[in-house]
Amino acid sequence: MVDFKQEIANIISKVVEIDAKELKEYIEIPKDVKNGDYAFPCFRLAKELKKAPPAIAEELKEKIQINKELIEKIEIVGGYLNFYISTIKLTGEVLNEIAKQPKYGANEIGKGKNIVIDYSAPNIAKPFHIGHLRSTVIGAALYNIYKYLGYNVTGINHLGDYGTQFGKLIEGYRLWGDEYDIDKSPIEELTKIYIRINQLCKEDENVLQACRDNFKKLEDGDEYCVSLWTKFRELSLKEFQKVYDLLGSKFDSWNGEAFYSDKMPEVISILEKTGKLIESQGARIVDLEDKGINTPCIIEKTNGSTTYATRDLAAILYRARNYDFDKALYVTSYEQVLHFKQVFEVAKLLGLDEKYTKGLEHVPFGMVLLPTGKMSTREGNIVKLEDLLEEAISRAKEIIEQKNPSLPNKDEISKKVGIGAVIFNDLANSRVKDEIFDWNQILNFQGETGPYIQYTYVRTQSLLEKTGNVEIEDVRAELLQDIYSQNIVKLLYNFTDILEQVTEKNEPSILSRYLIDLSKAYSAFYNENKIMVEDTEMKNSRIYLTYAVGKVLKTGANLLGIEMPDKM
Ligand code: ARG
Question: Could you please report the per-residue DSSP string of 111-135?
């Protein structure tokens, strides 16, 4: 497909002494369609050419040679050169590309680059909470999109399966294990044990000591402790899997924190050699004051045990060596901003190539708020995720029952709609924003929601079912020049660009927004243009555009992790 931006950069580069690749980066897409399809801001050249931007614009306009087949006209507005591309050419190009590419919008921009995405990462023996859901959803969307653009992606579920709390759980289980049915509802029962043992630890110093000893024993491979830990882990994973099955989540690696237990001594010894690992109140820390971080990074606690940060450092070392990553992304809530600042700073001391330390990136996201306030375990607002997802499905079913009672496969469709709604809600807005979890909003078929996109898709499919398929050869681009068709064509053309933007900012909401825009553009087209017209050529062209919209909506939604029903 013609890369119009590139074409424009090429013709400009012929008359100025700047590489087309660099020029391409200058080219903008004007906010207002009145200013053309692409704009070249001449002030970017003002310094070099020692001329005022409008004068440069004049000169460029005089000198450049345009291919009339691609570009209809150029206009000067202030210091901008505005390019109007041939919309007939554009329409033909886009629709042909959609016809011939099964993976429309995919490219090879990521070829040879390795991306590691660390996401989901719930904690063993604790509830899989709504923040982990967000991490799972954002991480999976990024995973799919990077992959679509040709990157080699590894998805890691860095489970919280290690730490002193396991010493406590083991002790609690040893004392009262037979009072709890942990096989039946492991997380709930283990949480109860955890709360009870914590209480006892506060009252009895000896119990606390026993817990610490258990953790030490666990680290040293004591049979009893390891077998309990394994049992807790397995039971928890079985519970988590229910959520993953509902969401369709998959990971390439399940190496959690425990995986790094034998890899931390190396981190500590490297840090010792740098001389930056210092004693402070019995603990060993790296001071980061001179890096503008006021809180030191604790590497070893007073009792000699390692920390969450130490394990992340070992993981960086391991991932650099085993995945040779160009980017390593960490998808967690913004509550961990400080943690990753510290870890990424200390990672610079590990002697790794700069490529790796530069590739580390925290991808933070905001809290999930109930209309009544923060959802959290501590305040007792526990929302069990599996229940929440099941509720989404049953609410979706209720709506479908009302709207379309005779629909076949209602259960399967309700699942796609309910889960799709929750996923879309997590991705709808800029990720750092806090998100409000409000059932009425999430499942509103008319709102800017997952169901709205699915509904638009379903409309395209039922239209195609009625009309039968049209071949690309029967499309006449000249007949799709009205503003509603053109809005759609431009959006379709921008699809790859949107996906690239997602990866540049690690911001899936750019794609969510796009799918809403495309759905709205299709609704406007559908309302304004009659599709079943007498004129066969017109009818076929409009049907084909409908097909194209459906295809891109489905591709985009699937990349976000949302499944499309064919009917709803
Ligand atoms: N288990 C952690 C939590 O629940 C998230 C882990 C994120 N990944 C990491 N490499 N630190 O907060």
Answer: TT-EEEEE---PBTTS---HHHHHH
Sign of CA pseudo-dihedral 55, 57, 61, 64: positive
CB of residue 344 inside a 6 A radius of ligand 1: no
- For ligand 1, whether the C-beta of 332 sits within 6 Å is yes
| CB-based contact 323:114 (threshold 8 Å) | yes
Q: What is the pLDDT of residues 295-326, one digit of tens each?
A: 999 999 987 888 999 999 999 999 999 999 99
Q: What is the pLDDT of residues 358-384, one digit of tens each?
A: 999 999 999 998 776 655 444 445 677
Cα of 163 vs centre of ligand 1, distance in Å, is 12
Residue 11 Cα to ligand 1 middle (Å) = 49
Q: What's the whole-model pTM score?
A: 0.94
385-560, CATH topology level: Isoleucyl-tRNA Synthetase; Domain 1 (1.10.730)
Fold adopted by 110-365: Rossmann fold (3.40.50)
Q: How confident is the model at residue 219 (pLDDT cuts 50, 70, 90)?
A: confident
Quick check: 553 and 511 in contact, CB under 8 A? no
For the domain made up of 4-85, the CATH class stated in words is alpha beta
